[in-house]
Amino acid sequence: MGMQCIELFSDRLFLIDRKRNKNKEKLLIEFQSDATFHSLVDEWFTQHPDLKLFRKIKVDQIETCKQLMSHGIGMAVLPESSVKNLDPEHFTFQPLIINNQHLSRPTWLCYAEAARELPQVEAFLKVIEEKVDNQSN
After folding, report:
1. What is the pTM of this model?
2. Alpha-carbon distance 77 to 94, whole Å?
3. Is 72 helix (H, G, I), strand (E, B) or coil?
4. Which residues pair with 79 in a beta bridge?
């Protein structure tokens, strides 16, 4: 049973921290994600040795990560769509860039090919494909 995937969008990544957090040694709050995402973030931190991570904690959801960070517990790498409501007056937003490329996190819709035989799934996928096609034009 083959799987098909459609990339819905790609979110730029930012290191977010409270402006009043002046600790030299930083706590990084991570959310559960795929290994590729964590490898990218680790590579970025390797290229920024001035940010001294003294500890990491991992939570299960992006929103939990964001709430802990926003309450001053530590800093977090978050996708742009999840931080649009954060006030730049209170938070720093450092883009994650490697080799002049902004790091991003893609969001995919994946489905079993056989599911497309269901009329409701076919209709839903047609709507999604039209939206994705319109975004790329």
Report:
1. 0.82
2. 9
3. coil
4. 13
Residue 93's nearest CA partner among 113, 109, 107, 76 is: 76
Q: What's the token pair of residue 78? A: 């978050």
- pLDDT tens digit string along 43-76? 999 998 888 788 899 999 999 999 999 988 899 9
Q: Please tell me whether residue 104 adopts helix, strand or coil conformation.
A: strand
Task: Report how far residue 62's alpha carbon sits from residue 41's, in angstroms, rounded to the nearest whole number.
Answer: 15
Nearest to 45 by CA among 13, 67, 72: 13
Give CA separation, 135 vs 9, 80, 129, 132, in Å. 9, 18, 10, 5
Whole-angstrom distance, CA of residue 137 vs CA of residue 132: 9
**C-alpha radius of gyration, the chain, whole number:** 18
Q: Which amino acid is at 24?
A: K
Write the CA distances from 25 to 28, 48, 74, integer angstroms.
10, 13, 10
